[in-house]
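Rotation project, supervised by the postdoc (A.L.). Task for the rotation student: set up a whole-complex structure prediction and record inputs and outputs verbatim in this book. Inputs entered:
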Amino acid sequence: MFRRLPDSPAETLRFTFDGAALTARRGDTVASALLANGIASCRTTPAKGTPRGPYCLMGVCFECLVTIDGTGNRQGCLVALEEGMRVETQAGARRAVAP
Amino acid sequence: MEADVTVIGGGLVGSCMAYGLARLGARVLVLDEGDVARRASRANFALVWVQSKGMGMPQYSAWSYASSEGWAGFAADIRDETGIDVVHQRPGGFALCLSDDEMEARRRYIERLQAQPGAPAIPYEVLDHAGTKRMLPDIGPDVVGAIYSPADGHVNSLKLFRALHVANQRRGVTYRPESVVDSIEARDGGFRITGAWGEARSARVVLAAGLGNARLAPMVGLDAPVIPSKGQVLVTEKVAPFLHYPMGTVRQTDEGGVMMGDSQEDAGFDTVVTNPVISVMAERAMRMFPLLRDLNVVRTWSASRVMSPDGFPIYAQSRTAPGAFVVTCHSGVTLAAAHALVLAPQVQAGALADELSCFSGTRFHVPQAA
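Outputs recorded:
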């Protein structure tokens, strides 16, 4: 669905999504890295369990929520991808856990 | 006349009155402001709360308790009529205390409240830390204890607001938004109500305009000296259910967000959210439930709530313009059932019951000493 612009940075980063090994580029957000890999759905809603994916890409719509390195409900479009990140589907509501 | 009753105000109080009147077959017209109205109904904390109500007026304690007792039936009626579940739950509620002094003060307060002549015996328990933790496993070490009352509950007040509007529409209530009322005149055994939008006539009129009642009431010989009380609320992201009871200041909604609230300020019509206030609220909530610490707050808001000089509702029929009623209160959610099922039928019958006479605005006419 998406193609990279010709002037994208060349440095490749490795990450996982639900355990699958993927790559993207330095400068990608987590949301754009998922989209670049053809992943259109990254969460299910707390209310009805409907699948959703990145939409506004500017921090407003909260559709791109994912679990990153164990922390739930992160906005994928506001987090820069880092080498080795463990990204997972945000399935329904996040769990509140005691610190 | 186009309507038997005109209800001025389309918030929760006005909608409940319109609903109760329409159920009895009245032709009802609701005149409302628009989306920019100071609408406490869209900003409230959504408790159906009883345990701490009525210090100084035991009748208010009884009235709140009666409404909470009627709430389950009210919610069932609304669901049957509209298909909308307003998620009324009554698991009981907690007032959590963060120091021994606070615990002692709250325990004494409830004792004094219920020792008032005529005050209802609302069931409650005084719990220590261990007793509280058995019911609320996620409390922090700073919680020294709690007052628990099985009478307390909560609801989704936005769904309630919508459901009332749907129910009223189905029952043929005429709803006119953007209809600010400029004048009300008693004439020809009824009322002529006018504004930039035109005019309406009806046999009766119910003033349910929240803070607007202060301006409207004198037009028909009533008194409703209500002023704004600023309340601020925070809500977190949606998380899996972990709070199975409402607190007076913290509750988890049916959809998962955790609301923190209960600030009260005299700030005129200012509704700016201020960091000192919300940070104190958040700090107390985090001491109650340390697992809130890692959650993201997604919205904060504040609203002008409706406050009478003594904090209690004002219900009265005009002596100089019979057929004009004022209905105004702070707790439009808790009292929704009482308004729809008890007060509205009295308005329909043309007279308020004697036991509500203590709520008349004439109580503020006592000459000021000194």
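Student's summary: The longest strand of chain B covers residues 297-307.
Supervisor addendum: Chain B has three domains: 3-49+158-225+311-365, 93-150, 227-307.
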